[in-house]
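Memo to structure team: turn this sequence into structure tokens by end of day. - J.P.
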Amino acid sequence: MMMEETRGNREGRFDWPLVIAVYAISLFGLLCIAMARYVPAETEGLPLLNKILGNRSSMWQSIFLLVSPAIIGVIVAIPTEIIRARTRLVYYGVLGLLMVTLVLGQVSNGLRGWLRSDILGRSIQVSEFSKLSILLMLARQLARSEKPMSKFKDFVRIMMIVGLPAVTVLAQGETGTVIVIAFMFMIMIYFAGVDFRIILMFVVLGVIGIGAIVAYGMLSETTDYRILRLLAFMDPQKYEQSGGYQIIMSQRAIGAGRLTGQGTFLPGSWTTLGYVPESSTDAIFTVVGECFGFVGCAGLLVAYLFIVLRMTWIARFTQDKFCQLVIIGVVSMLLFHVFQNVAMCMGIMPITGIPLPFMSYGGSNFISNIAAVALVLNIARSGNTTAINTVPLPKMNF
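Reply from structure team:
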């Protein structure tokens, strides 16, 4: 019976609970996007479906949602070994697109981060896919050694893998994505077994860097919105008309929801009237807080927690180091997105352009997150996971 159980686990299974949780959040996100862009004069009195699909943003988000199962199906169908073998192709392909975007990309809100696709009729934010490409390439490199980065050439190679796309994205003006990459990098090298002294060195350098930026902003009259956001985080009232405006409005909108929220499609709300900037994208959590209150916010966070724990459980019993590191990268990426987005809307972290996974409007972010989940589903189904009682646990830093 033990042999049969082991064989069954090697064949793998499609993780339906993970998929159901992801699509439950995605459908809830579609509803919140529609409420953020709600114009009472256009859809007042119409059925709920008309209200949800009554604006361009929610219409496009529903299209992304309908296309996503096909993306999952394709990625899950690709053998894991082929994904491992093609990581360089993915990495250098995305890096090339980042370079093109830096030169020819469209500028929006001060960022040169979008490539226009005439075929799709939309612009693609390439930096969203850079996280996945780095994740795969980094997992491949880290899996080659029990002690990654212990040799100088390995250290340089890994830093180049992360540094080249990160610097290119930063040059486009996209700070939020670089922060996500940095967090994902730190978590992955920790679980890969990199010497703790190297990790501590990165932490110290990061703290020094942030301190230097804050000091520069306080001692100069800078107009850089990224520095102003850091200063506004420390004193929102002082920068109420600039970097602190979004923090203050987000807090007021969430606070207005109280315990159970003010209800759906409510005319005259903070988000409906446009007081909260980017309420359908970066600040979508304010819609949840205002319309569904503390209960809605808590329920959403529990759903995210389930996804994180489910993926962590799969990683815990994954035998292959490359596959395990891929899952760890996906978990760290999604976890930081959720933490940073929720925290910045509540005013306990600086404002950054980091969207809320599966909730915020945007095709590039939504598709890249769906692809990340599909990678985890691929590993879970590939037979690289084992039952708790059949084989020893892998020697990883869990």
